[in-house]
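User: I'll paste a sequence; please echo it back and then give the predicted structure.

Assistant: Echoing your sequence first, then the prediction.
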Amino acid sequence: MMKLKLAAVLVAFSLVTACEGAGGKETAGTLLGGAGGALLGAQVGSGSGQILAAVAGGLAGAFLGNQIGQSLDRADQAYAEQATQQAHNAPIGQTITWNNPESGNSGTYTPVRDGYDSGGAYCREYQTTVTVGGKVEEAYGTACQQPDGSWKVVN
């Protein structure tokens, strides 16, 4: 059984790497998620239920993998994190932008207000945008500085 699992993972990995250029992150995420979900599902059931569990796990994994593949990759996240750190020290109203020329994804962070929470921690409210595949999403949130100097999103 362990050899079968290992073989399935290796096949899934080779399919993902082969499709990376052709279908991008979305296809790779779908294939890898489907394979992983099927493997996990096969562990849940037994007998004929094992097949049903593997199919259900595969479908759920494919869907989740597809959604993740459409979102930000590691490089996008690194650019966004760098912009976030700059925004912590930027003047109120100054927009910090990031973009990943390889993926075409981009975003902004704008500190819009600052103050202190009930515990005395310095906090900043931000307006953010993220553009993935040409679709823009906007959000608002607040981050507070922790005693060690790091920042934590509180809403």
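The chain has three helices and five strands. The longest helix spans residues 2-44.
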